[in-house]
Amino acid sequence: MTRYPIDRLVLTPDDIDLSRSPLAGYLGVETHVLGAFNPGLTRLPNGNLLMMARIAEALRTPVRDGHVHAIRWADGRYVLDAWPLEQVDTADPRKFMVSGNQWKVMALTSLSWLLPVELSPDGLEIVALHYDRAVAPSSNLECYGVEDARISRVDGRWLMTACAVSPERHSTVLYSSANGLDWRFEDIILDHQNKDMVIFEGRIDGHYWAQTRPLGELYFAYPPGSEWRSGPSINLASSPDALHWKPYRKPGIRPHAATVATARMGGGAPPILTEEGWLSLWHGVEPHEIVGIYRTYWSLLDRNDPGIVFRTGHTPVLEPSAELTRPLEHQLYLRDVVFTTGVVDCGSHFIVASGEADLACRITHIPREAIFA
């Protein structure tokens, strides 16, 4: 496992004050922070860093009176829904499956909102938690939460994608900001299941570009002997305005048949332009038990055509760290997951933000030579 001198957790569930949560005062029951994780990352005009951390706020006692309960936003307030226990499977602490449907149907034991966390320029100290600027559900699109922000700065404007969860669709929504701190909801931009849309930090021939990762229940086979493995892959799309997106004909980053470590994959940090081309940090998942083992890998894409992948690191640049989460052992409900969601280029090194174990925010300083050597 690759180790870096600067690699630590900077935000944990115990750092969150739920009395200042958007949900405070609505539910009449105790909640707790299931996780403070998967942070978008950007540099603010004052030089500090900003993490947009996902706060998964869960019911302390979801099961009571023969029912399991879920939190939902409805018409400007938060309510509880009760499901009879005989209709659900509650084996996973993060969700429960609802039986009796033709399709897989689930509900969440938590509702997620986004908290702006201002950090020192090196990303290692918390400067402020901006509860007054939290991003929470504001429409039926997001009635079960807003998840996994990714932030890109393009031409002096900050763009943030997030996953909006609702019964109607599992979609991607866009927020924008003039200062990286105050966010305005723009619109839904992808309406199919896609948790990993990340916008490139810069335009190509005047167009915005993004990596996407649509999911489905069926994938067609590559021919026998192919170097590629069928399954979820990282696709590409372009847009004239960051609102209307057209899929790109060429494939993006695909899972390799030679390794099970990328049997499932998806976008991580927004691609940034370096002297070598667009640097893309993405996650690969090795099948293991229920969730799998999440690691971070990298690829370099052509600066003029991101459909050309000219170099990929098959050794993970970042792996889950049991050492970092050992002090939080009493709060762990998931292991073997590092989910990278942001990167800032600092010249000699990259500051990388990740979610660790769906529990905490991790900041890692990765030397430039770890990738470009």
Structural commentary:
InterPro entries: Glyco_hydro_beta-prop_sf, Mannoside_phosphorylase. This is Glycosidase. Keywords: Glycosidase, Glycosyltransferase, Hydrolase, Transferase. It is a single chain. It is built from two helices and 27 strands. It is mostly beta strands and 373 residues long. It has a single domain, classed as Tachylectin-2, Chain A (5 Propeller). The strands form seven sheets. Strands 20, 21, 22, 23 and 24 form a five-stranded antiparallel beta sheet that branches. Strands 1-27-26-25 form a four-stranded antiparallel beta sheet. Strands 2-3-10-11 form a four-stranded antiparallel beta sheet, with no helix packed on it. The longest helix has 4 residues. It is globular, with a radius of gyration of 20 Å.
- What do we call the CATH homologous superfamily? Glycosyl hydrolase domain, family 43
Largest sheet: 5 strands, antiparallel
Helix content: under 10%
Query: Which of globular, elongated, flat, extended, rod-shaped describes the shape?
Result: globular
Number of domains: 1
Structural class based on helices, strands and sheet pairing? mainly beta
The percent range for strand residues is: over 45%
The average pLDDT value, as a whole number, equals 95
What Rg do the Cα atoms give? 20 Å
**Series of secondary-structure elements, N-terminal to C-terminal:** EEEEEEEEEEEEEEEEEEEEEEEEHEEEH
Please name the CATH architecture: 5 Propeller
List keywords for this structure.
single chain, 373 residues, Tachylectin-2, Chain A, 5-stranded antiparallel beta sheet, 4-stranded antiparallel beta sheet, hydrolase, Glycosidase
